[in-house]
What does this fold into?
Amino acid sequence: MNFMTPERTEKFKNVADRRQVNLTVILENVHDAHNIGAVLRSCDSVGIHEIYVLYTDENLSDENIKLGKRSSAGARKWVRVHHYTDVELCFKDIRKKYQKVYATHLSKDAHGLYDLDLTESVALLFGNERDGVSEETLKHVDGNFIIPQVGMVESLNISVACAVSIYEAFRQRDAKGYYKDNPSTTAEEKAIILNEYQERNRRKPGSILPNKVD
It folds into this structure.
């Protein structure tokens, strides 16, 4: 059993109070250990409580998927990870919690990242660098967005693209005081999150709570 100092307890409470339960990230066919780990660290730093990892590529072997799940194990102690292989089920569950879904996808009607209202209830969808977001998942989004760029390279690493996007969400939410008076999270939800973190802290190093797999 890990002893909780008053300072540690207060830190847990402050983190739980600032969790933005109406902001999340969806990763499609991203199984690289470094990318998933980097995404989770960025999500934790802006107050995202959970993310969704979706595997739809039929060319991905079971071992690829297992690798993707293992790669998130070390970094997901403070960010809950939901794994899916079924697109319909994944978005059905997402729609229960989040009102809008925007995908990083270059299309004629794509908006610039900085034109989005990221203070609303929203999920941001990212595909891998090679294939991007699949046509199947694009059927479930409310719109597409791009990150403005002026260089020769037209794409960013997935973890970098995610970090840029969610830090824009952080900027918008912080400007409205969402990290001080947090309207996205009820007192009951904050208590649940705090209890979850305290439980995780009591577990042995390397141990994690089970996360949803579909």
About this structure: Residues 158-175 form the longest helix (18 residues). The longest strand covers residues 23-28. The two ends are 31 Å apart (CA to CA).
